[in-house]
Every structure is written in structure tokens, then in C-alpha cells.
Design brief:
CATH superfamily of the largest domain: Dehydroquinate synthase-like - alpha domain
Mean pLDDT: 96
Bound molecules: zinc ion
Radius of gyration: 22 Å
CATH topology of the largest domain: Dehydroquinate synthase-like, alpha domain
Number of domains: 2
Structural class: alpha/beta
């Protein structure tokens, strides 16, 4: 069986050498397989990781049909398993409690499927100090992260959990997943470009930490994946394999950096803003879809500001308190003031930065330009893979989306191009182009 793991094999073995520091790197997941089909291989894969364990195979009605039924059948008699089809899966703390109850008679779980099933199992097994593996039904990056996205009273939180023992992708199954999901997965990894530029810029201006390791891995395949955008939308196996490999590496990124900055900067802030404040106006778009739309907007800002020959002129940071109270409510203001603390530019810092920019603008901007994808490349490839690209595509109120771009910078402590644009008084005009 052909394996599409690429560099992931070296990461599993702990033998991959980073070109920047010549150190060897491994990953906390014992086995990852990206295969055309996992059919018939299930018991071999699971027995190696869950020797002598009693396991519960958990799917939902959709993933049961797509793959769960077959996996349970192929494990039966070779692994000590029972099956549970979760009729109404929910990645909420109530859903997690439900699974913890189910876990009582088992040593661990096998997740089949979607983000909802996988993240709930990740968190439930973490809390119960048991383990799990997952057969993926989409190419998302959540399968290979150590965090779980769980809702408390309707509000999603990203929680520290643990890694799967094994993550197995069956490309034949993935090629039948809804196109909307593959397009969202593409959007949630092409944001590498905006996240890297923001994170490196924050490092250069505020001396925050920055690690290039995940980007060295993503760079191995990003151009090929962009070239294959159309084939991804058509469900071609080779193209889906590239997207899956990049998504898996993106998920693993956090394991090298111990922070999510690697794939979550300005564009993710905008998506979080949408989830936090859209209320009735939320069009039901997914995380990846929102990130894709925001990536396009952020890329436009980065390309237009950082490619100029002249530096921007920084003025002291202004938190528009009255507007924030009016738009987001009084209680948000305290949260915002705290989030803004590490990235406030006072007069002194603004003066110093302007002086530095005047002397060193091209030295400052050049490394950022190198990491940047051209706006047209992002726009075109997202179109080819069928991703949503604008607020209109998403049926999101365009004034609300402009607010997300304008105020999104205030809700997180990460310094991004939205801060640079805001502090140099060009955010309003760039948003309204
Ligand atoms: Zn994301």
C-alpha cells in the first residue's frame, strides 16, 4: 500500500533534521498514516498502539456509515472492542461528560470521524487518563493537535488535552467528504502565510518568541498544494494527500513551538471575533471558512503595507473605549485593556519605532516579504478549491465583517498587521477599499 506520509515518517521516527538548527525532531503521536485506504489494516494499526486494551469504537451516524461500520467489523475478533454510535454528538462539556461515563468500562477509545467526535474523545480520554486513536474522515488539522475545542454554555474554548496514539487518514473516505469541508481545510492551512508574517513581525518589533521549525516542514509541500487546489476540490487522491499531509503538519506545529501562534494570528483573531460577537448574524460558517475569508483580508493588508518602499508612521495606540462599549458591551472593555497591555505603543515606543523604520525599513520588511504569498495566489487558489473568499460569499453582514477587521485586534494579545495598520492610522481606509 502506497504511503503518502512524506516527511511525517521521519517525524514519527524522530529523525527529521531542521535545516535551521541541525537538531533532530520527533512528534508526540506514535503513528500517523496517510493511505489510499486503511481497509484491512485496522487491527494491525490498533494492536500495535493499544496492546491488550479493551476499546470502544465511537462514531456518529454519518461517520458510522462513511467508515465506522467497516472499522468495527474489521477489528472484531482481532481487538477487544465494542461499538458505540453517538446519535447526537456534541463537542460540549456535556458531550465530554457523556463520553467519560461510557469510558468507565474501557481502557480507551477509537474515534471515527469528524472534529466533534474526535475533539470530545480527545478531551474525555485526557480527563480520564486513558488513551485514544482516531480514524479521520476529513483532512482537518485538529486531529494532530494536543488541544481540544469544547463549548461551555455555547462558547468554544481551546483546552489543553493530549495527543492521539495514532491518527489514520483513509484518502478514499476523505475523497467522499463534503467539498465544503476540504475547502475549509485548505483555507485553514493557507493561513500559514499571514500567520507567519504576523508572528515574525511581532518577534522583530516586540521581541516576542518565534520558531521557524513548523514552517520549514510546511514549506516542503505548500507550493505543490497550491498548484493542486483544483484537484483537491475534485477529490483527487494525490491532491487530497497533499492537503492531508499539510493539515497534519499544521496540527503538529504546536508540538514544536508550545504555542498556537504558528498558525493563528490576525486571521484567526478575526474569525474568533465573528464567533464571539456575530450573535444572530452568524451565518453558521465553520472555523476554517471564516479563517479563509480573514486570511484574504489580512493578506491584502500585509501586501499593501509591507511591500511599500516607505515605512508607515506609528502613533501611540488608541483603544477607542466608547466605540468598544457601544459595539461589544462594557464588560469587554476590561478584557480588552488587559489583552492590549503587551502591545501598547506609547509615545516613546512609537518614536523609537519610527526612527528604527526610517533607518532600517527594508531590513525590517524584507524577511517578512520573503514569507508572504502574493495576494493573487491566495485569492486564485482559494477560488480553485471552492473556498469562501468574501463576507458576501459567507452571507455575513459586510458592516459586521468590517467591524471584525477593525476591532478584532483588541480581543487578543497577539501583535499582528491589524495592530500595525491601526497604530499607523491606515486601518480604516484599507478596510474600506
Ligand atoms: Zn485554524
Amino acid at each position: 500500500m502506497k504511503n503518502y506520509n512524506g516527511v511525517i515518517d521521519e517525524l514519527i521516527n524522530g529523525t527529521w533534521v531542521s535545516p535551521s538548527d541541525q537538531n533532530q525532531y520527533g512528534i508526540p503521536i506514535k503513528n500517523i498514516q496517510i493511505l489510499e485506504s486503511v481497509e484491512g489494516l485496522e487491527s494491525g494499526l490498533i494492536n500495535k498502539l493499544h496492546d491488550n486494551q479493551k476499546l470502544l469504537v465511537v462514531s456518529d451516524p454519518f461517520t458510522h456509515k462513511a467508515m465506522g461500520e467497516r472499522i468495527f467489523k474489521n477489528l472484531t475478533g482481532k481487538v477487544n472492542v465494542d461499538e458505540y454510535i453517538w446519535e447526537k454528538p456534541s463537542s460540549s462539556i456535556e458531550g465530554v461528560d457523556h463520553l467519560r461515563e461510557k469510558l468507565k468500562n474501557y481502557d480507551g477509545m477509537i474515534a471515527v470521524g469528524s472534529g466533534t467526535v474526535s475533539d470530545s474523545i480527545k478531551y474525555a480520554t485526557f480527563l480520564e487518563k486513558k488513551n485514544y486513536s482516531v480514524f479521520a474522515t476529513t483532512p482537518m488539522n485538529a486531529y494532530t493537535t494536543g488541544t481540544a475545542s469544547i463549548a461551555f454554555n455555547g462558547i468554544k474554548k481551546s483546552l489543553v488535552a493530549h495527543y492521539a496514539q495514532g491518527v489514520f487518514f483513509d484518502l478514499n473516505v476523505l475523497s467522499h467528504c463534503p467539498k465544503r469541508l476540504t475547502a475549509a481545510a485548505f483555507a485553514d492551512v493557507i493561513c500559514r502565510t499571514t500567520a507567519q508574517v504576523d508572528w515574525l513581525m511581532s518577534h522583530q518589533l516586540l521581541n516576542t518568541e518565534y520558531k521557524p521549525i513548523p514552517y520549514e516542514l510546511l514549506a516542503l509541500y505548500e507550493q505543490q498544494m497550491i498548484d493542486a487546489a483544483k484537484e483537491i476540490s475534485e477529490g483527487k487522491i494525490n491532491a487530497l494527500a497533499l492537503l492531508t499531509r499539510i493539515s497534519a503538519i499544521m496540527g503538529l506545529g504546536t508540538s514544536f513551538t508550545q504555542t498556537t501562534h504558528v498558525g493563528s494570528m490576525g486571521e484567526h483573531g478575526v474569525s474568533h471575533y465573528i464567533d464571539m460577537f456575530a450573535g444572530d448574524k452568524h451565518p453558521g460558517t465553520s472555523h476554517g471558512e471564516q479563517v479563509g475569508i480573514a486570511t484574504i483580508s489580512i493578506s491584502k493588508l500585509q501586501n499593501s503595507i509591507l511591500k511599500k518602499d516607505q515605512p508607515p508612521i506609528i502613533t501611540p495606540t488608541n483603544i477607542p473605549e466608547d466605540e468598544i462599549i457601544q459595539k461589544l458591551g462594557e464588560p469587554m472593555l476590561e478584557t480588552i485593556k488587559k489583552a492590549m497591555e503587551p502591545k501598547i505603543f506609547d509615545q516613546k515606543k512609537a518614536d523609537e519605532t519610527n526612527e528604527y523604520f526610517l533607518k532600517n525599513w527594508s531590513e525590517f520588511a524584507e524577511p517578512l516579504r520573503e514569507k508572504m504569498l502574493d495576494y493573487d495566489i491566495i485569492w486564485n487558489s482559494m477560488g480553485e478549491c471552492g473556498a469562501l473568499r468574501t463576507a458576501e460569499d459567507a452571507k455575513l453582514d459586510s458592516n459586521f465583517y468590517k467591524d471584525a477587521l477593525k476591532y478584532g485586534r483588541f480581543i487578543r494579545d497577539r501583535y499582528t498587521i491589524l495592530d500595525l495598520a491601526g497604530d499607523s492610522n491606515q486601518l480604516d481606509s484599507l478596510i474600506n477599499v
